[in-house]
Each structure stands twice: as structure tokens, then as C-alpha cells.
Specification:
- The protein is mainly alpha-helical and 250 residues long.
- It has one domain (3-242).
- It has helices spanning 3-33, 35-59, 81-103, 114-141, 160-180, 191-214, 219-227, 229-242; strands at 66-68, 75-76, 79-80, 146-148, 154-155, 158-159.
- It has a two-stranded antiparallel sheet.
- Strand 5 (154-155) and strand 6 (158-159) form a beta hairpin.
- Helix 2 (35-59) packs antiparallel against helix 5 and helix 3 (81-103) packs across helix 6.
- The longest helix has 31 residues, at 3-33.
- The chain is globular.
């Protein structure tokens, strides 16, 4: 296959994957948090995610100076629509996994205390950024989805500022979601809710397996195993406890 059709196929696959992850995350949040919370979270994450990326790609804010290529498909301003969709998907999975790990339930309903919301947002941001530790080098140096102005930023050619930016932006998104769109009830434990609570760990687990198999440079595979693997392991055990299969230790 020649270069142009292959590039078009890669772009189509990437955009379709992002759309699928967005749809799965929206369904999961709809079931577990309710329609108002899901719509509010999606709108907030996409709006603030787009703003952060637009300012980053045009002014160097948050993540350092960079610009997107055509690899990720159609753009809104300087930002691929696929990236906008992924901001919600990643923030939802970070939030749901943080709630499972900290509170043994997939959502933290109102009225939660300020400390609970702070801890949830902080852990969610760490979970999201742990994914980015391996994903960013792959997208930059293998897929060439964006080009960094600095080619040696302290993390396999990526800039360390980018990870600080991911922490900050995702923390703000999850914090604002909890402040304005927090679910008003605990999720039940029916079959549909159990499936919805598996979406976040399943997406994260797929991303972990991908990074373990294809992470580049190879060193990020070890980073992914521990940085992402610990959070995934604890979240899966917490979900197991939540659905009532076990509530006691060994």
C-alpha cells in the first residue's frame, strides 16, 4: 500500500477509535451519573480541553509549544476534533477510577465534602497523566500526530511541562464537574450499572496493553506497567467489592 492511502487509513482508524471511546464513556457516565451529569461533564471537558489545546498550540500555554499535523483528522481551530473527544473520555475514566479507588463506588454523589472532591480530582488527574506518560512519546515520534518545538524536553524528547499541563487541566475539569454537575444519587448495582462501571477500567486496561506492546521508546513500557498498572489493579478490585462479590479481605 502506498504512503497516501496508508496515512488515510491510519487517520480514519484513529478518529474512529476516539469517537468510539467518547461514545462508550458518555454511555457509562449517563448510566452511572445520570443524564444531567453526563451531558455537563462532556460539555465541560470538551470546551476546556479544546481551550487548553488551542492555547497550547497557538501560544505555548499549559503543554509547551507544539502544533498538530493532519494525522488526527479534521480540526476545530488548531485542535483535532478527535483530541477534543478524548478530553472527555480520559477525564471520565480518570474520575470513575478515582472514585472506585478512593470510595469503592464509581461516582461520588453530592453533597460530598470539599476534601473528598479535592482528593478525587487530584487522583483522577494523576491517573490521566499516567496514561500520557507513555502515550505522548508514541503520538509524537511514531504517529507524528503533533510536532513539539522542543525536541529534548526531558522525557524521551517530550517536554515535562506537558505533564504538568495535563495534571492542571484535568484537575480543573474534574473539579468543576464535581462543583456544578455532580451526580445526585449513588449508582445502583444492576447489570447495566455493573457493565457501565467496567467501561473506565476496560478502556484504561486496553491502553495499558497497547503501551506494553507498542510503547516507543521501549523504556516507557516499564513505566506504563507500574504507573498505569497499579491504578488499574486497585480500581478493578474496588469494582469487585462494589458489586458485592466480596467485601472482605482474604
Amino acid at each position: 500500500m502506498s504512503a497516501a492511502p496508508l496515512a488515510a487509513l491510519v487517520t480514519t482508524a484513529l478518529v474512529a477509535s476516539c469517537a468510539l471511546l467518547f461514545a462508550a464513556s458518555l454511555w457509562s457516565s449517563w448510566v452511572l451519573a445520570g443524564r444531567r451529569s453526563a451531558a455537563g461533564f462532556a460539555g465541560l471537558a470538551m470546551m476546556l480541553g479544546w481551550f487548553a489545546e488551542q492555547m497550547g498550540s497557538s501560544r505555548g500555554w499549559f503543554f509547551g509549544r507544539y502544533h498538530y499535523t493532519e494525522v488526527l483528522g479534521p480540526q476545530l481551530g488548531n485542535v483535532p476534533v478527535a483530541i477534543v473527544l478524548m478530553w472527555f473520555a480520559l477525564c471520565w475514566l480518570g474520575y470513575a477510577m478515582a472514585c472506585l479507588i478512593l470510595w469503592r463506588q464509581p461516582v461520588l454523589p453530592a453533597p460530598a465534602g470539599a476534601l473528598q472532591r479535592l482528593l478525587t480530582a487530584w487522583l483522577a488527574a494523576m491517573i490521566i497523566t499516567a496514561f500520557d506518560l507513555g502515550a505522548d512519546p508514541y503520538f509524537v515520534f511514531v504517529l507524528k500526530a503533533w510536532i513539539m518545538a522542543r525536541t529534548d524536553g526531558g522525557w524521551f524528547g517530550e517536554t515535562l511541562q506537558g505533564f504538568a499541563g495535563w495534571m492542571f487541566v484535568s484537575f480543573v475539569i474534574v473539579s468543576l464537574f464535581q462543583a456544578f454537575f455532580a451526580p445526585v444519587r449513588l449508582a445502583s448495582r444492576g447489570r447495566r450499572e455493573r457493565a457501565a462501571a467496567l467501561v473506565a477500567p476496560a478502556i484504561y486496561g486496553f491502553a495499558l496493553v497497547f503501551q506494553l506492546c507498542f510503547g516507543d521508546p521501549v523504556e516507557v513500557r516499564a513505566v506504563a506497567f507500574f504507573a498505569m498498572g497499579i491504578a488499574l489493579f486497585v480500581a478493578l478490585v474496588a469494582r469487585w467489592q462494589w458489586i458485592g462479590e466480596t467485601t472482605k479481605g482474604p
